[in-house]
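Give me structure tokens for this 92-residue protein.
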Amino acid sequence: MTTKKKTSHTTEPAIAVEPILPAVLGKSVDRVAKCYNYDKYPDEWQAQYDMLLPDGITCKECNHCDRCCSIFGQNETDTSCQFHPSKFRPVV
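Here you go.
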């Protein structure tokens, strides 16, 4: 007769982890949502961070804003790009 080891199936809260790559000047690491478990999926943290626009910048200040808002439903007040990698280009 073999005995199986019992395992616990409790759900633990997500733990915030430090960035894998250096943070970009003008982009706060605190803006990445804390709802994911980045310990298990550290590449997801970097992907979410890369999508953020610089602090204080919105889609309205992007060269692609009209196209993204009309075709894809992006909002002018959003602070992250819907494309990966980010297509953000400041209006000149």
